[in-house]
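sanity check this record:
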Amino acid sequence: MSPRTPPATRSRRTRLVLFGAVFLTVTVAGLFWDLRRPPVYRAGARLHIEQVDATAPTPDAEGRAFLTQCEVLTSRPLLEQVSPALIALGLPKADPVAAAQARLAVEPVANTHVAMVTATGTDPDLLSRLVQVVVSAYQVRLAEQETATATATDAELVRQTEALEGRVTAAREELAAFGGRNAIVSVEREESEATSHLKGLQTALNNATEALATAEGRQSAVRGAIRRGEPVISTADQRTIAVLKQRQSELKERWAELAQRFPAKRLAIEPEAILLKTKLARLDDELAREGERSQQAALADATQQVEAARSGVARLRQEVATQEREAQAFSARFQEYQAKAADLERLESLLHDAREKSARLAAGVEHPHTTVEILEGATRPTRPVAPPYWRDGAICLGVALGVALAAVWLFDFLTRPAPLPAAPAMAAPSRWPRLARTPPAELDAQPVLELPPAWPRELSGAEIATLLDAAAPPVDLLLALLFAGATAEEAANLGVAALDLHHGRARVGGASGRDLRLAPTLLALLRTVEREAEGFALAGADGAPPTPTTLNDLLACTATDAGLERPHEVTTSVVRHTLLAHLVRQGLRLAELPRVAGPMAPATLAAYGRLSPPGPGLPLEAVDLTPPGV
């Protein structure tokens, strides 16, 4: 490229070359990685696996059994049975089972009993044969398991039947012996002797209680009649009293006949009448005596019946209580008898079920087994399933484009020139007197100069002195470094160890940086910093270096406290521009300016050249580095 090529053109060509080189390199590397991968094939077979069982298992049980069979298809015990065949297919002899498991996979089809057995690898011939070997081994294993299961089930059923028969016989004998000892005929409670006797006693007690009530009623009736003076005749005396009343009636009839035949005075002396009257009197006395005696006999009889009824009720109650205790004991024994009978019934039911199941198994009806049907056999695959070359190639191109763009951005970031400072809008003070003495006509005759570009604000000596007086740590240190030529980034990252106070220098920019010459008036501030701090000179409370934005905010706050006009314009760029403009106005050679300010773009140096006074430039050692106003 020609030395006269504009810098912008050279930079654009450099970016294009860098972009093309990075894009091509990453693309070639990515496509090489993509295309060097071997193709992967997949062979598969579809199997219908179903558990046949006469007990009608639940859907969950069927699902678990199906998934278990899917795991068996790739299990090590199954593959170890066909390890010679696996070695014959070309699998490693060290561990052919592990190699086969790495290639095999079983995927159940949702909501069905269909399983997809697949083998994945780079050899299509090996894959189809591997699936065929595994399916054949699985079928053989199922047949062997069915035979072994049937034999074991038959033997187990025979053993269970014999054991149940023995238990049933023992339970029957025990139940019969227990019933004989406790007089239990059957499981019906009414057939027991104790229960029947208790029922009879309760019936007798009820009858005796009724008889007692009747006797007490009769006794009360007799006593009431006696109190009322009513005749009470016992049953035994009724005939005797009836005969006496009959005779009394006959005598009264004869007396009536005599009274009709004879007058009253004649009756008093008539012997027959006197005799008849005497007989009636004696008969009345006898009836009276007999009635009183019968009344007492009836009362005594009623009282005797009451006492007899009470004695019978008490005796029956005692017998009922005794029999109830016996019935309770019998009830406990009867419940035990019922429990033994229930156990016998359960054992008989189990024995009946075992005999029926044994009969069905003997007839070959109910042998639980697993059936497998090959719906689709394994065939040699012809098209690879992986890797996706086109997709990965497109991804490689996209990655290459992104890396190339990132490389160009990083190149622009690392080679970006420093920003060009703006020139002040006023002319050099040294020219003002001459302009004032020049006549207007002569000024109009001079050529019109182009206005300088807009520059940052430049602080006066009084503003600098006021700003330094109002500055408190760490702003005073920041001003000292900016007036020594450091940038905001360099001041923020400056460590205390980078200060050489003996020679009045400060090292900024790291290993590829530069040494700043410090004015004697600024050296005292830096000594104070070294004595009081460690690490970063401008570090905050957390010990981390501040950002340029933070430094600008600190300067704006200090300018406000100092009472400067437009304090928001006082930034690190303004302070640094004030120093550089001061040095250039003293006649510093522009080639010496990067020794103070660091690398500068030629356009920026040319802009500062407008501030340079007439005459040859001076070296850095001949210029006063102290800022104005300090």
User: Anything to note?
Assistant: Strands lie at 41-52, 104-108, 114-121, 369-376, 499-500, 505-508, 514-517.
